[in-house]
Design brief:
elongated; 377 residues; 12 helices; alpha/beta; 10 strands
C-alpha cells in the first residue's frame, strides 16, 4: 500500500547535517496513511550517500535517488517524480523538524485548502557568528519585513519556508524551474500566486534552519539570491515584492557615487598638477567632487544610522553580546544581495546571456552543472 505522504530532500555534501536531519525526519508523528522519505543526492563527494544508505538499510521508508544536475530544483523534481504519496512535503538537510511537523503540514493543507502551506522561518545557530547571522535574519531591517521571517505570523502570504502540496498541484502549476540554481522556491510560489493560488503559513508547523556560520559564506549565499532573483523577475515581468529591488538600488547608488567621486577627485588633482593653479575648469571639478562626495557621505551616514538602530533593536531581542558584529552582518546581507542583483541584471537583461560560471556554483559543497538559460525570454 502506498504511503499518503512523500517527504522530499535534495542533498549534496551534507555529511555534517544529514544524520541529524534524518533522525528528526524518521521520528515524525506519522500522518494518516504514513510517509516515505526520498533523498535526491547531487553526486556528493563526501559521506552523504554512505550515511543515507545506512538509514535506508535500517528503515524501508528511506530511498536514495540520483540528482545528476546537482542543484536543488532538479533534485526536488526528481524526488517528486519518484514519489508514491499524494501529498508532498519538502524538507532541507540543514534543518531540524518538530516531531509533529509533517502531521501539522497535512492538517493545515487540508484545513485551509491552500495550494502550498508551511511554517515560518526559524533558526537554530551554533557558534557566535552564526548566532549573529541568525539574529539579523529575523530582523525586518535585514529582510525587508518578509512575513515568513516572523515566527508568530499566521495567514496568507507570498512565499513560505519549504512547502507542502497535494501531488496534483504540480500538474496544475508545474514543477520547480531547473534553470534556477537559487530562488526556485520563490519562483514556484510566485507562479502559484500569479495563477490565482493561495499560500498559507501556520506557526504550528515548526522547523529550525541552521544558518551560515561565516560572513564569507553568507556573502556568497546572498549574492546568489540577488543574482537569480533577476532571472525570476525577468521571467514574470514583475517582482514579487518591492523589497527585492531595494538592495540593488542601494548598491548601485553606492558604487555609482563612489566611482563618480573618485573620477572627479582624480580629474581635479590632475588638472591642478598640470596647471599649478586653480582655473574655472578645476573649480568646477572641485565643486562636482565636493557635491558627489557629500551625497555619498550622506548615503553612508543614513545607512550607518539605520544599521546601528537595527543592530540595537536586534541585540535587545536576541542578546547584547551579538551587538558588535551586527552592523557588519546587516551590511553583508544588503551589499551581497544588491551586488548579485546588479550582476544578474548585467548578465540576463543587458547581456541577454546565460548565467556566469560563478553563479552556477553552490554555496555549500561543490559546483553545479550549468543550467540551460533562456535569459532572452
Amino acid at each position: 500500500m502506498s504511503p499518503e505522504v512523500t517527504i522530499v530532500i535534495p542533498t549534496r555534501n551534507e555529511e555534517k547535517h544529514i544524520t541529524q536531519c534524518l533522525r528528526s525526519v524518521l521520528q515524525q508523528e506519522p500522518p494518516p496513511g504514513g510517509f516515505e522519505v526520498i533523498i535526491a543526492d547531487g553526486a556528493s563527494t563526501d559521506k552523504t550517500r554512505e550515511l543515507v544508505e545506512g538509514f535506508a538499510r535500517q528503515d524501508p521508508r528511506v530511498r536514495l535517488i540520483d540528482n545528476p544536475r546537482q542543484i536543488v530544483s532538479s533534485g526536488l523534481n526528481a524526488a517528486i517524480r519518484a514519489a508514491a504519496g499524494s501529498i508532498i512535503v519538502r524538507m532541507d538537510a540543514h534543518t531540524e523538524y518538530a516531531p509533529d511537523y509533517v502531521r501539522n503540514c497535512v492538517e493545515v493543507l487540508r484545513a485551509t485548502g491552500a495550494d502550498n502551506v508551511g511554517g515560518p522561518a526559524r533558526t537554530r545557530a551554533k557558534g557566535y557568528m552564526a548566532s549573529a547571522i541568525a539574529a539579523a535574519y529575523h530582523s525586518p531591517f535585514a529582510v525587508g519585513g518578509a512575513r515568513f521571517h516572523d515566527p508568530t505570523f499566521e495567514g496568507y502570504l507570498d512565499t513560505v519556508t519549504y512547502g507542502c502540496w497535494h501531488r496534483a498541484h504540480f500538474d496544475k502549476f508545474g514543477l520547480f524551474d531547473e534553470e534556477l540554481v537559487r530562488n526556485q522556491d520563490d519562483e514556484h510560489n510566485l507562479r502559484i500566486t500569479r495563477g490565482g493560488g493561495k499560500i498559507y503559513q501556520s506557526p504550528k508547523i515548526q522547523s529550525w534552519y541552521s544558518p551560515r556560520s561565516s560572513l564569507s559564506a553568507l556573502f556568497r549565499q546572498y549574492m546568489q539570491y540577488g543574482y537569480w532573483k533577476v532571472r525570476v523577475i525577468q521571467k514574470h515581468r514583475i517582482p514579487a515584492s518591492i523589497r527585492h529591488l531595494v538592495p540593488g538600488t542601494f548598491v548601485l547608488a553606492l558604487l555609482g557615487l563612489g566611482a563618480l567621486s573618485l573620477s572627479l577627485g582624480l580629474g581635479y588633482l590632475l588638472l591642478r598638477l598640470a596647471n599649478m593653479a586653480a582655473g574655472k575648469g578645476t573649480e568646477l571639478l572641485f565643486l562636482g567632487f565636493a557635491g558627489v562626495s557629500a551625497a555619498l557621505g550622506l548615503l553612508l551616514s543614513v545607512y550607518f544610522l539605520a544599521a546601528l538602530a537595527g543592530s540595537f533593536l536586534t541585540a535587545a531581542r536576541s542578546g547584547w553580546r551579538l551587538l558588535p558584529p551586527l552592523p557588519v552582518v546587516f551590511f553583508c546581507y544588503h551589499f551581497s544581495y544588491g551586488l548579485g542583483f546588479l550582476l544578474g541584471f548585467l548578465d540576463f537583461v543587458i547581456g541577454k546571456k546565460g548565467p556566469s560560471r560563478w553563479a552556477g556554483a553552490l554555496t555549500r559543497g561543490g559546483t553545479a552543472q550549468q543550467p540551460k538559460s533562456k535569459a532572452s525570454a
